[in-house]
Design goal:
alpha+beta; 3 helices; 4 strands; elongated
Length: 142
């Protein structure tokens, strides 16, 4: 009986050691993935209307020039999406620019760009929405 108890205790000790190794491996893998995830990040979305209040629209080449000379020089990375919205009851084509991991400098640059766009294209305003992002993850090829 005592041999059976001793064998049982030895088996439990060996199994608990195996469990620790397995948990350690899982923890290392989780830590590796976590290193690529940033929590509590700031972001911003900018809504650029393409209608000119006094008549006409901002052309594709005008937008492309603004995007490549202004936006691309201010932000390390951003996305542009075509959208349709309404402003003062009128349908308007819009460009939505999204920046994740926005720094304080990015937010300041967004305000300068909005003012510049408004002046260049006679816009009433550019909407800037600051985003409080709980988690952002950049997934690479690894």
């Amino acid at each position: 009986m005592r041999t059976l108890s001793l064998s049982f205790c030895l088996a439990i000790l060996l199994l608990s050691g195996c469990a620790s190794i397995g948990e350690g491996e899982k923890q290392s893998a989780a830590e590796t993935v976590t290193a690529k995830v940033k929590t509590h990040s700031e972001g911003l979305k900018m809504y650029f209307g393409l209608s000119i209040p006094t008549g006409g629209n901002i052309t594709a080449s005008q937008w492309q020039h603004f995007e490549s000379t202004q936006l691309a020089s201010k932000f390390a990375g951003f996305s542009v999406v075509d959208a349709v919205g309404y402003y003062k009851g009128k349908k308007e084509h819009t460009k939505i620019v999204t920046v994740y991991n926005a720094s304080a400098e990015d937010i300041a640059a967004a305000n300068v760009l909005a003012q510049k766009y408004s002046q260049l294209f006679n816009q009433d305003s550019v909407l800037i929405a600051l985003l409080n992002i709980s988690q952002v993850s950049f997934v690479g090829k690894e």
